[in-house]
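[SOLVED] Need 3D model of a two-part complex

Original post:
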Amino acid sequence: MSDLGERLDRLADAAAEGVEVTRPDQRQAGRPWWRTEPALVAVGALVVVGIVTAAILVGGDNGDNDVAVGGDDGGGSAGQGTDAVVAVTYGDVSLGGGPPDLELRFLDADGAVIAERSSSELDREADIAEAGGIVQRVPAGDLELEATLQQGGDVESCTQPFAAAPGDRLILRVQLGLEAAAGADCAQVQSVDDWVADRSGPTGESYIGLTQAEADEQARQAGLTTRVVGVDGMDLAATMDFRPDRLNLLLFDGTVVAGQLDGEEAAAGGTEPGGTEPGGTEPGGAVPAGHGTLTVELERVDGVPPVQGVTVGLEAYDSGGEVVAEPDWGQSAEGVLLTTVPAGRMRLVSVTSSPSVPGGLRCETPIEVPDGDSVRVSCWRRTRVARARRWPRPARRPTAFSGCPGACRRPASLVSPRTRRLSWPRPGAGPSGCWLATARAASEPRTISRSASTS
Amino acid sequence: MEFAEFFEQTAPRLVRLCFLTTLDREAAADAAQEALSRAWRDWPRVGADSSDPAAWTTTVALNLCRSRWRRLTRQAQLAPRAYSVDGLPDELPDVDLQRALRRLPVRQREAVVLHYWADLAVDACARAMGVTPGAVKQHLSRARQRLAADLGEPDLELDVEVESP
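Solution:
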């Protein structure tokens, strides 16, 4: 590299020979006066004034016939309003992360094209947080998104109707191609308010509406650090370490829409994870002798929404390998699951499967249920944002995985060059190799846990 | 600073920068011309004392070069037989270097040109490219490895300097 600069210099000098760049302020010198910029601006202004004058005159002439003139003006100008903002992402993956090539058309109720956008507009080499989704301002009303995906030599297309009210901020997650589950909509539609629900704390309230730079500065002055955990409806992978001085920000259309300190309760409307037990089985009073209570939480990691088609099954085995509990934790279950199990040492196995991971990801956690006491295990559900930088894209790539803490076995289908680089188990994640090891008896003093239900 | 003075100082460097980024003389001339035209159009703002017009123009030029690269890549994907982006200008020296630069991804090429040719520190490269300093270091590191392999210089050293705040 010692002479790289000189070699570049020589090459650039040779290339620049004979290349002329005209000074912009002198480019008009040789033009006739009527082609100079001031003249063109003046002509343009005159044309605009003429059109506006003509419109006013026509409107005045038809003052008694408002329907004919006024109606056309009002209904035909769908593109004039910018009443709602829509951000389009490709599933949970940044369109800035590389292929696929996605072409978008926003249509109004009459089928007229409001805007045409493309994923090629985004900076594909940028960090995910910098790329975000495609943000489009649209008039309020019944609209339609037409998405066309080019993948290899294949072209897929679909349409998704959606309604936008004035002031709406919507997220459309296109599910074409590999992202599509059988029978899935062309795009999932979600409001920004739903996206950020329970993810804004009292501290973050004062950051809403700021740009990222402004939020960084305000946080710095308050002695906080910031990190972006979501952009334009796309949730970013985030580490799960607990730092009470860190503000997690969600951005939409370039401004902060929610902010929450690590471990902070939601500002308003938040639901205590422990407050609902959709899939749980109430032990119903006293625990029988020789038994304990096993409480398993499926917590949402950094607010990542559940991924369609992912199921988490639980099995508990005693030291002899016999199944002592097989709670039914269905696909839709979230929150806390309670079951009574015989006291003693056992293994809790979670099996996470999805259509793309038929074998399932098995995580095994050794636990000990004290007699007459309870044990709580925090499991997690997160989406790994895999950035497909290579082309052609791998046939299968991990999009989501969930499970309980413990040593995990990964099916071969989840191994890809990208994830291999990330390594599994995560280095430095603790002796168990997984991210969380929060199994503990309820009677023990609490140390560190991300379990929101008991905080 | 007057625009005329700025133009005289910046234009030759900008053409060279755009060429090294695109490896295409016409594209380099177009990108440099367009970037300078935009600078002139917004000169009251760009040329204000508090701003750095050279950095602004460099960023605009890089964006224009990148847009062209994307357009060509896309056209090549859609109609690979009709377009080719592999042609090298025969009359220029150091074909090995041209070929090695051509093999680099556009971001890595930008990082190399800004750091090793324009002598910008990593922080300045990051500002010009619109990425983080860490990303620039990564681009430089990968580019160095590829250049070392392509140019047959296995002992390349990366002397990355970061501006102190």
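Edit: The longest helix of chain A spans residues 37-61.
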